[in-house]
Amino acid sequence: MRLALGLEYDGAAFCGWQTQPSRCGVQDALESALGEIATHDVTTVCAGRTDAGVHACSQVVHFDVDASRPLSAWTRGVNASLSGSASVLWAHKVDSEFHARFSATARRYKYYLLNRPQRPGLFGNHVGWFHAPLDEDLMGAAGQTLVGEHDFTTFRAAECQAKSPVRMIRELSVKRHGALVCFDVTANAFLQHMVRNIVGSLIYVGCGRQPSNWIREILEARERRLAAPTIAANGLYLWSVEYAQDWGLPNTPPNSVPDAVLAASG
């Protein structure tokens, strides 16, 4: 039997999604908890691997099990064994053809950036920070250059193992909520560090270090060294993953940590 799960987690508590020899990954914690319910080893596949420090409001995973259990066992039962930094939101039986990664049609990420002179004292592990004033309208306009299908070599990590650098960004917006600036990006898929590199480069435009047309220039140059440094991971959230309605997965919009951050930053 194949099952899909919706999962949220605090990336500050883990060394990223992927399993590690030290067992510090989200995957390690989840597979251990699932194994206790299944009474056999379980291997999970996620919709998108998150780096160390990156959070997820609605990660989706699938796994196969021999054991027959009520769906509540895969939510409340698994959560009883998980650390408080991760929680299963829902469980759903799926066809054996379903694949958490390859069946996904889009991923949405948000990056929360605290924009004020003082570094964060609260929520320091959950927001990025930039001290100088930023023009969110200028950043949003510059970001429209990236919407559409492009070669994103400029914004991929040097160690990225994706076979192709071509991705399709469907939407990109930049909005301010008081001292908090939110970068919101939806694409069919992302390259390693792609969102964090885009945010870092848009900040260069927003603070006046580079003109708006610089984003287009570096995109077309396809040279990683021309873009801004990769911004810190702690402000990044895997917000949601989209699938065809035929799979019947629950639609549970995220509503946790970012709301608290917004309220506190007001």
Descriptive key words:
21% helix, 2 domains, 266 residues, globular, alpha+beta, Alpha-Beta Plaits, single chain, 28% strand
What's the SSE blueprint?
Layout: E1 2-9, H1 26-38, E2 44-46, E3 55-64, H2 76-81, E4 86-94, E5 106-115, E6 128-130, H3 136-143, E7 148-151, E8 166-177, E9 180-187, H4 194-206, H5 214-221, E10 236-242, H6 257-265
Parallel strand pairs: 3-10, 5-6
Antiparallel strand pairs: 1-3, 1-4, 2-3, 5-9, 5-10, 7-8, 8-9
Helix pairs in contact: 3-4
Description:
With 266 residues, the protein is α+β, with helices and mostly antiparallel strands. The chain folds into 2 domains: 2-103, Pseudouridine synthase I, catalytic domain, N-terminal subdomain (Alpha-Beta Plaits), CATH 3.30.70.580; 106-238, Pseudouridine synthase I, catalytic domain, C-terminal subdomain (Alpha-Beta Plaits, 2-Layer Sandwich). It has helices at residues 26-38, 76-81, 136-143, 194-206, 214-221, 257-265, and strands at residues 2-9, 44-46, 55-64, 86-94, 106-115, 128-130, 148-151, 166-177, 180-187, 236-242. Strands 1, 2, 3, 4, 5, 6, 7, 8, 9 and 10 form a 10-stranded mixed sheet that branches. A hairpin with an 8-residue loop joins strand 2 and strand 3 (55-64). Helix 3 packs across helix 4 (194-206). The mean pLDDT is 93.
